[in-house]
Structures are given as structure tokens and as C-alpha cells.
Amino acid sequence: MPPAKKRTRSYDSAKIRAAVPAQFGNVRDAVAGLTPEQLAGPTRLGEWTVRELAAHLTMALGSVARYLAEPQPAKQELALLDWPSATATAAARIDADTRALDTADLPGLYERTAALYEERVSGASDERLVPTRFGAMRLADFLVTRTVELVVHTDDLNAATGLDIPYDRQALAACTRLLADALAVKAPGGAVEVRIPPFAVVQCVEGPRHTRGTPPNVVETDPLTWIRLATGRTGWAEELDAARVGASGERADLTALLPLMG
């Protein structure tokens, strides 16, 4: 399929290239300190244990290195804003790939993954096409998607272990913005303004477009709550009841539009 004809937000390549290994490093440091008992514990991701979740996180970088070792595709097939919705088709394959990883030496797996990533990404052009499981993408775009994988699964790991693994600010910002833009793609329009300070504001949902003053339909939440809503980790009503989401106006209910990716 041809690249989507959508207005795509621009991302600073240097910041994204720094954010991806920085967030991976935050996770690597935390995983190195987990006990066997913690690694055997459950997660909110079905049957995955903490060990399997930790192993899966290496795939965020490992996939980049693997794709860069393959021949470059002839043409781009997937635009950045197509990626969030495309991920819904891959749950079974991702699970199988994760279970196939050798998790006996997690620190070693993280070290090897980081080294191979650095070796192959450092000299690669942003315009280099990589053959992802969803179609060929520009390397620069694929690296933005890595911030989503890393931030979302860092949150999963924090939830499972009670740790407080930090979020690289640029990684969190890119993740928040891409998922906000994915909402605007899924429900185009200007009737509702979604605010996720300090990183993103988007307009979405068909209806009367707001032009000045305070919009009649406003949703506001923090980045991590938004990310959990967008990925199905939590529900709209739950977050509204807990006052982690503010919603005003008759159209400011995003229940039918969430999650954006599984």
C-alpha cells in the first residue's frame, strides 16, 4: 500500500536517536537488579512473566538492528501514522517471538542488544528504509515507534514490579505525541480538543470546529494516563472516575475510540 497522505508531525532526529538508547538504558539498569522471584512474577500482559516482559523490551532495539542487516526495500509501504493501528495484527507473532528469546542471561542479552544497535544505527541514514513486520518504513519513523515500545513496556514493568524506572523526557514526549496524532487520524475533525500537557494538543472528532476562545469539548490528562488509555492498559470510565482524566462537553467522551493499539 502507498504511504498515507496525512500531515505528519516532525520529530528531531538527533533527540529521538538519543532518547531510544537512553530509555533502553534505564530499563537495562533496572532489569539487572531484579531477583529471580521478581522475574518470575506476573504482569498485566496475559501470561507473560516479568522475565518475558523484560526480554521483550530488548526487541525494541533488537528489531532495528535486525532490519538494518537486511536488504533495503525498494519503496516505502508504511507511514509513521499508520503504525499504531497496524500493530493490532501482530499480537500472536510478537508473543511467539518473545517466547523464543533466550532469557537465561538477561543482563547479557541487554548488553549484546545495545551494542549491536549502536553499531548498526550510528551510521545509518534517516531515509534508509527498513523492512518492519508491518511494511517498509523510513528509519527515522521506525525509531519514533521505538519510543512507544520502550515507554509503554517500561510502564508495564513498573506496574509489575513496583519499581520506579524513570522515563527519558524525549522518549515520553515522542510516545505521547505519536499516540495523540493516531487519535486524530482515527477520528478526524475539530469538535474535541485533547490536551496532554506538556507534550501534545490535538483536535479530533467530526462536528463543529472550534476557532477561538475556550473549546466547548475538551479532554485533558497526563502523559502516562493517556498512554495507558491509548494502549488499553486502562479504561476511560476508570480514569474519569479517578479524576486522572478531565472531560467537558457533550462530545468529550473517547470511550468508542480507545484503545488505539493493543
Descriptive report:
This protein is α+β, with helices and mostly antiparallel strands and 262 residues long. The chain has two domains: 13-170, dinb family like domain (Four Helix Bundle (Hemerythrin (Met), subunit A), Up-down Bundle), CATH 1.20.120; 187-257, Nonspecific Lipid-transfer Protein, Chain A. The chain has helices spanning 13-32, 36-39, 50-68, 83-86, 91-99, 106-121, 139-161, 169-186, 223-230, 236-241; strands spanning 129-132, 135-138, 192-196, 200-204, 218-221, 245-248. The strands form two sheets. The protein has a four-stranded mixed sheet. It has a two-stranded antiparallel sheet with strand order 1-2. Helix 1 packs antiparallel against helix 3 (50-68) and helix 1 packs antiparallel against helix 6. The longest helix has 23 residues, at 139-161. The protein is globular, with a radius of gyration of 19 Å. 39% of the residues are buried. Residues 1-5 have low confidence and may be disordered.
